[in-house]
Amino acid sequence: MAALKLTESYYMKIYISADLEGINGICHSSQTQPTERGFERAVALLHQEVNAVIRGARLGGAREIVVNDAHWDMRNLESERLEPGTTLISGWQKPFSMVSGCAGAAGLASVASGPFDAAYFVGYHAMSGTARGVLSHTYRAKVFLDVSLNGQPVGETGLNAAACGWWGVPLAFLSGDDAVCEEAVDLLGPLECVTVKKAVSRYSAVFAPQEDVIAQLEAGAARALENKNRWRLFRPPSPSTLELTMLDPAMADGAELLPGVRRLSDRQIAVSHNNFSVLFNLMLAIGAIGEGRRDRHF
Ligand SMILES: [Zn+2]
C-alpha cells in the first residue's frame, strides 16, 4: 500500500490576530463596545468570519491554529464557538497585545508546539487619520493621532506585521475593508487580502452579501497557504524608531518620563531601540500613560 504523501503545508502552524472593526456588518464604534446595543451581533459576525478563516486555513493544510482575540478587552471570542481544535488566547492585559503569542508564547505560557509558519490578520481596519476607512484608528484612538515607524506612517497592520516579522513570522493573509487592504499592500507589497466591505467614510460602509464574504474568506485563507511567494516578512531594522503624535501635549509630557523618550514638539515624541519587541512594548506603555492623562472635561 502506498504511503500517504503529506504536503509540507500539512504541518503548518498558523497564528490569527482577530480584531472587530474590520468585520462585515460593522460601521460604527458603538457596535464595537460591550455595553452598547449591537455588540452581541457584532461578536456573532466576528465568530462567523474567524471560523471561515480557520476552515480555509485547514483546507490549505494548516494543522495547528491559534487565535489571539485582539479587540478591546480581548474577551470577545468564545472558545466553544470556534471551529473545533482551535486554541484561543483571550483577555487583557497580555504581553504584545494584538500580537500576543505570535512569538510562540504568551508570557510564560506556550501556545503552539513550535514556531508559527505564518500570521493572519482578520477584521483589521485602516490607520488613524484615514478619512475613508471604517473606524480608522491606531491602537488607542483617543491618544495616538499618528504613528510612524522609521519615517513611514503605520497603523495596526504595520505595527503588528513588524512585531510578527521581528519574531520571524511573515504575514500571509489579511481581511477588512478596502482601505486596510490598500494600506497593507502599499506597505508590504502583494499580499492575500480579502475585502469584506467597502468604506464610504469612517462611519459608513457598503456591506457585501454575508454568504459571499464567508465563501471568500474561506477561499482566501486556503489560497494564502498555497502562495508562499505572497507571504510578507516585515522585519524592522535595528535600531528602529517610532514617532508618536499624541492627541494632547499633556500625554506627551507623561510619555517623556520614560527613559529614552525624546520630545520632538508639543505633541510629538520619538523613541528608538535595537530590539523591536522592546520598542513595541514602549509604544503600548506610552499609550497606557496617555490614556491616564486624558482630561474628562476638555
Ligand atoms: Zn483595532
Task: Provide a compact summary of the structure.
The protein is α/β, with parallel strands linked by helices and 298 residues long. It has six helices and 14 strands.
Helix percent band = 25-40%
From N to C, what is the helix and strand string?
EHEEEEEEEHEHEEHEHEEH
Main sheet characteristics: 7 strands, mixed
- The end-to-end span amounts to 76 Å
Count of individual beta strands: 14
Throw out a few tags for this protein.
Rossmann fold; alpha/beta; 298 residues; globular; seven-stranded mixed β-sheet; binds zinc ion; 6 helices; five-stranded antiparallel β-sheet; disordered N terminus
Describe the structure.
This protein is an alpha/beta fold and about 300 residues long. Helix content is about 30%, strand content about 25%. The chain has helices spanning about 40-60, 155-165, 180-190, 210-225, 250-255, 275-290, and strands at about 10-20, 60-70, 85-90, 105, 110, 120-125, 145-150, 150-155, 170-175, 190-200, 205, 240-245, 260-265, 270-275. Helix 1 (about 40-60) links the parallel strand 1 and strand 2. The N and C termini lie far apart (about 75 Å). The model is unreliable at about 1-5 (pLDDT under 50). The protein binds zinc ion. Zinc ion binds next to loops.
